[in-house]
Amino acid sequence: MYKYLFGPVPSRRLGMSLGVDLVPKKVCSLDCVYCEVGKTTKLTVERKEYIPYDKVAEELMHYFKNSPNPDYITFSGAGEPTLNSRIGDVLQFIKQNEPNIPVAVLTNGTLFYDKKVRRELKDADIVLPSLDAATEATFQKINQPALQLTSEKQIQGLVDFRKEFTGKIWLEIFILPEYNYNDNELLKLKKTIDKIKPDSIQLNTLDRPGTVMNLHSATIAELKRIINFWNLNNVEIIAAAPQRKSIQSYRNDAETAILETISRRPCTTDDLKEILGMHINEINKYLDVLEAENKIRPVRQERGIFYQKKDN
Ligand code: SF4
Question: For a Cys staple, 207 with which of 94, 164, 276, 288, CB 3.0–4.6 Å?
């Protein structure tokens, strides 16, 4: 049983993706209202070795020796991976030992103002930064950043990263109708996209409850309107949980275990993590599908969001 590796998880974009956790839950430079992992408990831009390099390298080496190669190794986890000051060393460790496995980095991109962070990611194959706002007011509202961050700083970091990085950049934009769906924000986002020049833009929206009450997801029609409004040919919609089931690494046994546990009593994602020993990101992938299929429903209570089985 690994402590810092999880999955491989079924990912529509990255196939069978082995996750690497480089920070504990939930160390992040943002506290996004839509975060599926829960509220940020340590809001910071301080970089340090939150999870020791040696421990991650040891687990990776064990995995390489004992398991088939995944389609990707992905730095993701339950917080912002670039906050780990050894991320570059972990990346180099993978490239030295398994140069044929591509590495992806899921990041909020807020630390890209730091040249060192940009340099440390230079050997990644794909970087998937997020950008949900192009104005300061919306950035503050939707992403609730650490004090040192501004929207301008985030955007400039992404522009600089694009100039230096030779791999692929897939920019993810999370759309929430009450926050960033108005024409003014969309227009500014479009101008920002033109400056960043990502290889592709991926529109996402809420599958399940965020950290604040009464958030609504965008409809597919709304996401399609954005694509027309921007008139770009490299935008795609990735908010489609049920399609995840067709991915080879989708584990029906994991889905059944989650559903059976929830049938016994309603659980939070943390409860499921404790009971099933699965990583929170992995659990989230299956909950997305179960909710989209109308088999479970979330109920917000004092201790957090509980998932309960629906009697259809
Ligand atoms: S950046 Fe990612 S992990 Fe951090 S709060 Fe936002 S969604 Fe959650």
Answer: 288
Q: How far apart are CA 263 and CA 275, in angstroms?
A: 13
Ligand 1 atom showing the smallest separation from residue 31 Cα: 5
Give how far the C-alpha of residue 121 lies from the chain's centroid of Cα atoms, to the nearest Å.
17
Amino acid found at 308: Q
What are the structure tokens assigned to 257, written together?
Answer: 């275990």
Report the chain's mean pLDDT, rounded to a whole number: 91
Domains of the chain as residue ranges with CATH: 5-244 (3.20.20.70), 251-312 (1.10.10.10)
**Token pair listed for 83:** 């906050």
Q: Do 239 and 203 form a contact (C-beta atoms < 8 A)? A: yes
* Atom from ligand 1 closest to the CA of residue 79: 3
- Cβ < 6 A, ligand 1 pocket: 28, 30-32, 35, 37, 40, 79-80, 108
pTM of the model: 0.85
Q: How far apart are the CA of 105 and the centre of ligand 1, in A?
A: 13
Per-residue pLDDT tens digits for 84-98:
999 999 999 999 999
C-beta separation of 278 from 246 below 8 A:
no
Give the mutation target among 35, 43, 154 for probing the ligand 1 site: most ligand atoms within 8 A of CB. 35
Q: Which amino acid is at 155?
A: I
- Between the CA of 65 and the centroid of ligand 1 the distance, in Å, is 32
